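Researcher: Go.
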Amino acid sequence: MTGRTHKRLFAIGITIALLAATAWGEERTWTDDSDAFTLVAELVEVRGDEVVLRRQDGKQITVPLAKLSKKDLLFLVHRKEGDSSEAEKPFNGRPPGKPELVDTIKKLMTREQVALGGPIVNTIDMVLVPIPPGEFMMGSPKSEADRYDDETQHLVRITKPFYLSANEVTQVQYEQVVDKNPSYFSALGKGKDRVSGDTSQLPVEQVNWHEAVAFCGKLSEREGVEYRLPTEAEWEYACRAGTTTTYSFGNNVSQLGEYAWYDANIESRETTHPVGEKLPNAWGLFDMHGNVYEWCQDLYGPYESLQVVSDPTGPASSGARVLRGGAFVIRPKSVRAAYRTYYRPGDRNHNIGFRLARTYPLSP
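Model: Structure:
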């Protein structure tokens, strides 16, 4: 992008920002990779290595894909080429089907993930994403707004790769393994008046920690591989996907609605939502912020060591188990990547679900 074009687009962004109250089709804000310009425009098509956008004045412009921000590129991954209809839900209001989801994740995978192989699909149509080993700063810095005292930041090493399900376990997946659906927001649940149509792709909830572990055990027996809940460290590592910011996409809370169902979503209607309707993080994982809380393997307690630790599994004793990720009824500060909370393992709630980890088959 030339300096002249850059300045022109920046000026257009300022002009359009002043006209933001003007009703004009379906649009979104586009930015470049350094946030030097913003442009409110409608997507027309992706043409080769360029994206065609329609401004408010009806004129079309082309912008090189290489100049777009990561958020815009993630958005485009979810768009069918040539489809100019716009929606905040990247799959046009529908959760992605299995082939579409696998293809999307392949496009997002890092070199480290590719080296582990592609995403895999198990016997209950659950897509699992390879997570490479690495290290990260677990917890939050003292400068992070709305942080809690139990988020003391420390360096953690994840020494082994593992798989993590791209989505939270759905009602249909849970029922295939357990032969029952305990969910409040289901066709037969107490919250059925809040949902309509097919509820099979809603995350399963009203599952306590023991039941989540039992689900993992039954699926492990069926497939002959180890399924389990992720450790708290694995969960945060996967959620952050290489970032150090408040959320997996950055620090700007105004963008949270593109990635999460939380209490400020007008569409939330006090209910859960089909998995995968929002944007994924950089490693191809959906709903790591919001929708339902997710059980982790660990007992809850203060971080045991603030030195460098490898593959931590939590305290040896406690009366509660860790929950991560926040939920559809939760405020932005409680869907942060570092946010921790807990429930007793026998408790259940209509905003608590889980996702699965699966052991990666390392060579002997």
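Model: The longest helix spans residues 3-18.
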